[in-house]
Amino acid sequence: MTQTMSIEEYNQWRNRGKRHKYHVADPDKRKWRGKTYASKGEMEYAQNLIEQMNAGEIVEIVEQPRIRLGPDSVYVPDFLITPTSGFPYFADFKGVETPAFRRAKKLWAKYGRLDLVVVKKSGKKFKTVETVNGGSTPW
């Protein structure tokens, strides 16, 4: 006797036990304000930035700005942050540093106009682990 299953049941059966290569949470666990973030940590960092903005420490946050790094490369960091005092900077939350990101850091050092701050989560806090200085900083 043959059993039939729905498409939803089949998809659940097919995806059982499979995890994302970088252990990214399910999309519903990394959705906030109608946006699905690349990772749960990035979503939590965005929430942290909004708290800082509400406290008056940040003037503006731009998510997913596109930056041209040289003639043939475009990079999309997670945030462009304009603090109340100091210079604007880009921030990128990283759980895992990939070879593509290491290449982007080299290009950033040569072509980036502002600093790129690399942020990781340490316990319940966010920690700046590296700052890549822009090679063509205007000031």
Notes on the protein architecture:
The chain is α+β, with helices and mostly antiparallel strands. It contains 3 helices and 9 strands, in the order H-E-E-H-E-E-E-E-E-H-E-E. The protein is globular. The strands form 3 sheets. The chain has a 5-stranded mixed sheet with strand order 3-6-7-8-9. It has a two-stranded antiparallel ribbon with strand order 1-2. Strands 4-5 form a two-stranded antiparallel ribbon. The chain starts with 6 loop residues before the first helix and ends in a 7-residue tail after the last strand.
Helix-strand blueprint:
Elements: H1 7-14, E1 31-32, E2 35-36, H2 40-54, E3 58-63, E4 67-68, E5 74-75, E6 79-83, E7 89-93, H3 99-111, E8 116-122, E9 125-132
Parallel strand pairs: 7-8
Antiparallel strand pairs: 1-2, 3-6, 4-5, 6-7, 8-9
Residue windows where pLDDT falls under 50 for at least 5 positions:
none
* Order of neighbouring strands in the sheet with most strands: 3-6-7-8-9
Strand content: 25-35%
What's the alpha carbon Rg, rounded to whole Å? 19 Å
Taken from the alpha-carbon principal axes, the silhouette is globular
Helix content: 25-40%
Number of helices: 3
Largest sheet: 5 strands, mixed
Write the H/E string, N to C: HEEHEEEEEHEE
Protein structure class: alpha+beta
> Which whole number gives the mean pLDDT?
85
Give the strand tally: 9
Distance between the termini: 76 Å
